[in-house]
């Protein structure tokens, strides 16, 4: 029980380029719980994930985010990660010249004391083991990080990182997008294998099919930068069959997106980095 | 330009030196002709770089250093780069060659690997046939000065059908800023031979301006294969002016691996003349600029032969106030049917006050060819930093991974492990001061 984390977001507001995108988010995730966040495009889901991780483009203007009582918002991105936060990104970056293995070993060693680095043999065994579970071709170990990976391969690689880094709060941002049916099952198994009292999950998804494999304890709906409705797994099922209109009607919402007031076009949030070839 | 050119040396000195070394007549008169030319020619015209603003007239005087009996007589830090092998080594210290060994086996096969001064006497006709034929003495003032005052240097000759398995290694070391340090490397690989040559151009304790004006000429005969690797890490007071040129005949191949890790200004020009049908050239260049360094790095492939093929890749990492002008020239002459030329220049800027310029040029005079180029100048991508940091990696380490990653596609392709390791160490030395 002592290892069971408690992750609390309280009244979180965040802006990007002075536009308020998050308008007060409250959420509490305990070890062992799986929370799903659903919601139409452009309602602030990825922004929430980025604000928690500390993406430099987002400015938190109000509210707190704590892990076991420790303030995350004061920390740099890398400190948050070492504190136990993991974000599987909607658009992972590609990094030429850095192999998947070198990258992951640096990440694991970053958490360990100097002089206590993981041995190469141990690391390779661990990585091979996890890649086997995710049915990844061993060649991905020595490929450059995400470079030229297909959409589905990138997602699987995010899950591999999650499995290797053993975080206590896991946020998955549309980890199911771009996955074929078999891959979806493998990724879901990967997540389910990691479910334990020592870890809480926040799963951002558009589709019930992921939640068919990973049964959530709570489902939240985001609109206009807020959580507008929460419930159990049945809420996701209803969204799948009926869409979002009934919620909008119920709450009198016309435009569910956020930050669009004077916007004419959308910017992708984590644009894929340019390749150095 | 009509301004009076003041040359770093005079006629009587050149004459006396050549005489004291007992050089063959053709070489003595070539030195004098070149000196006259030097007084008439301008500096080369470089893309976006004006050599008149560089401090390049301190050549020093010829000074003879004593021969050494073994590598152990060299300063410790220079022994390591050569110690992997006992034979097939040559060391030039300041103006002259002080150490050389060639294995019995290669000697028996007819391989010549000696300093160019000795070769000019002992293999006078052979040297005369090739010396200053790929690079011409009258191209510009720098090539003329070089022809007139070069010393030491290397002559490597590989007879027909001989395959030299182990790389031949050379150390060019300058420890005295008042001595001439302008070697000439001449490599002739006869038909169907193969050889790999590695040199390291470095310095120790230089406090005053000095010019390193070197020329490398490589003649690749039909079906021969030459791999030429060079790592330069000269002190900030030394200006490195280096021409390298290969003439490649039918089905011959040249591979260039070049690490520009100097601390001073550097003009480097590496060209392959693909004369023969089916000839190929592959060039990999890595450079790092720091402080106020100015780099002008040119790679050139000129295609005459049918189905000739060239590939050149340059990566530059620029820090502090350094400037790099990176030029890639692929020239395909009329008649070079089915030639293929590819080039890529990429510059990564680490500082807002650094400058980088990538100038790819495709000059094509033939229809049936393929050619391509890619060039980019960019900064470390912030989203990449964020991504790495989100896995717990510190900002410093993340930047380091990205910078080394930027160079990795070139460094990891270097076929000789020892060169790759040494280059990696020099890169670390420059980036992690
Ligand atoms: N870097 C950015 N620059 C400008 N606007 C941004 C940026 N990031 C997000 N936004 C805006 O914030 C709003 C919320 O975006 P967010 O990515 O959080 O939506 P989402 O709910 O994740 O949508 P989706 O389901 O399409 O992934 C959008 O209007 C978006 O355009
Ligand atoms: Mg999103």
Automatic annotation (TrEMBL), chain A:
NCBIfam families (alphabetical): sufC
Listed InterPro entries: AAA+_ATPase, ABC_transporter-like_ATP-bd, ABC_transporter-like_CS, FeS-cluster_ATPase_SufC, P-loop_NTPase
Classification via PANTHER family: ABC TRANSPORTER I FAMILY MEMBER 6, CHLOROPLASTIC (PTHR43204)
Residue span, ABC transporter domain: 7-249
Protein name listed in UniProt: Fe-S cluster assembly ATPase SufC
Similarity field: Belongs to the ABC transporter superfamily. Ycf16 family.
Residues spanning the membrane: none
Disordered as annotated region, ranges: 258-277
Species per Swiss-Prot/TrEMBL record: Chengkuizengella marina
Keyword tags: ATP-binding, Nucleotide-binding
Highest taxon of the lineage: Bacteria
Any one GO MF annotation of this record: ATP binding
Automatic annotation (TrEMBL), chain B:
Name this polypeptide is given: Fe-S cluster assembly protein SufD
Top-level taxon of the source organism: Bacteria
InterPro entries from the UniProt entry: Fe-S_cluster_assembly_SufBD, SUF_FeS_clus_asmbl_SufBD_core, SUF_FeS_clus_asmbl_SufBD_sf, SUF_FeS_clus_asmbl_SufD, SufBD_N
Domain SUF system FeS cluster assembly SufBD N-terminal: 47-170
Family per record: Belongs to the iron-sulfur cluster assembly SufBD family.
SUPFAM superfamilies registered for this protein in UniProt: Stabilizer of iron transporter SufD (SSF101960)
Domain SUF system FeS cluster assembly SufBD core: 176-406
GO BP terms: iron-sulfur cluster assembly
């Amino acid at each position: 029980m002592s290892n069971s984390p408690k992750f609390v977001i309280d009244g979180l507001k965040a802006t990007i380029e002075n536009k308020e995108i998050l308008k007060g988010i409250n959420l509490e995730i305990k070890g062992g719980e799986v929370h799903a966040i659903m919601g139409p495009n452009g309602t602030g889901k990825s922004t929430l994930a980025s604000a928690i991780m500390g993406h430099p483009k987002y400015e938190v203007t109000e509210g707190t985010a704590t892990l076991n009582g420790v303030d995350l918002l004061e920390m740099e991105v890398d400190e948050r990660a070492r504190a136990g936060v993991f974000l599987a990104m909607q658009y992972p970056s590609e990094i030429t010249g850095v192999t998947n293995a070198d990258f992951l070993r640096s990440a694991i060693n970053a958490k360990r004391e100097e002089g206590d680095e993981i041995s190469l043999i141990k690391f390779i065994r661990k990585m091979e083991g996890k890649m086997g579970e995710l049915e990844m071709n061993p060649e991905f170990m020595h490929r450059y990080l995400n470079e030229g990976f297909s959409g589905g391969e990138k997602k699987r690689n995010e899950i591999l990182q999650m499995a290797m880094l053993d975080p206590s709060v896991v946020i998955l941002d549309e980890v199911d997008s771009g996955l074929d049916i078999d891959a979806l099952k493998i990724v879901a198994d990967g997540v389910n294998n990691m479910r334990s009292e020592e870890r809480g999950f926040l799963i951002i998804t558009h589709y019930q099919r992921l939640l068919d494999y990973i049964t959530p304890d709570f489902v939240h709906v985001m609109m206009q930068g807020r959580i507008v409705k929460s419930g159990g797994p049945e809420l996701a099922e209803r969204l799948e069959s009926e869409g979002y209109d009934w919620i909008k009607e119920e709450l009198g919402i016309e435009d569910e997106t956020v930050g669009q007031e004077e916007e004419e076009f959308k910017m992708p949030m984590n644009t894929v980095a340019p390749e150095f070839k | 330009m009509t301004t009076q050119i003041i040359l770093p040396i005079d006629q009587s000195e050149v004459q006396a030196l050549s005489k004291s070394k007992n050089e063959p007549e053709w070489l003595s008169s070539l030195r004098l002709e070149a000196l006259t030319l030097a007084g008439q020619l301008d500096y080369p015209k470089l893309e976006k770089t004006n050599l008149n603003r560089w401090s390049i007239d301190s050549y020093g005087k010829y000074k003879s250093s004593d021969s050494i009996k073994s590598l152990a007589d060299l300063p410790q830090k220079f022994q390591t780069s050569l110690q992997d092998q006992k034979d097939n080594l040559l060391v030039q210290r300041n103006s002259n060659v002080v150490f050389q060994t060639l294995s019995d086996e290669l000697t028996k096969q007819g391989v010549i690997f000696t300093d160019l001064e000795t070769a000019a006497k002992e293999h006078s006709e052979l040297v005369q046939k090739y010396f200053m034929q790929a690079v011409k003495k009258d191209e510009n003032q720098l090539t003329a000065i070089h022809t007139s005052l070069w010393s030491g240097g290397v002559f490597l000759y590989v007879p027909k059908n001989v395959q030299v398995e182990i790389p031949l290694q050379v150390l060019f070391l300058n420890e005295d800023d008042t001595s001439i340090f302008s070697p000439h490397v001449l490599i002739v690989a006869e038909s169907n031979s193969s050889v790999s040559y590695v040199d390291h151009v470095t310095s120790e304790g230089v406090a005053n301006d000095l010019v390193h004006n070197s020329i490398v000429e490589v003649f690749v005969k039909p079906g021969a294969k030459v791999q030429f690797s060079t790592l330069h890490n000269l002190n900030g007071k030394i200006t490195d002016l280096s021409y390298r040129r290969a003439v490649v005949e039918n089905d011959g191949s040249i591979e260039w691996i070049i690490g520009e890790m100097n601390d001073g200004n550097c003009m480097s020009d590496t060209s392959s003349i693909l004369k023969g049908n089916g000839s190929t050239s592959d060039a990999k260049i890595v450079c790092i600029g720091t402080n106020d360094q100015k780099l002008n790095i040119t790679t050139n492939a000129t295609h005459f032969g049918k189905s000739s093929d060239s590939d050149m890749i340059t990566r530059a990492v620029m820090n502090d106030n350094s400037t790099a002008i990176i030029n890639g020239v692929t020239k395909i002459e009329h008649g070079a049917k089915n030639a293929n030329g590819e080039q890529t220049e990429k510059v990564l800027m680490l500082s807002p006050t650094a400058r980088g310029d990538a100038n790819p040029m495709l000059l094509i005079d033939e229809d049936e060819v393929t050619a391509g180029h890619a060039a980019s100048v960019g900064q470390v991508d912030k989203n990449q930093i964020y991504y790495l940091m989100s896995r717990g990696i510190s900002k410093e380490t993340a930047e380091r991974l990205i910078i080394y990653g930027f160079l990795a596609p070139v460094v990891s392709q270097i076929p000789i492990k020892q060169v790759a390791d040494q280059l990696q160490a020099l890169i670390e030395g420059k980036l992690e001061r």
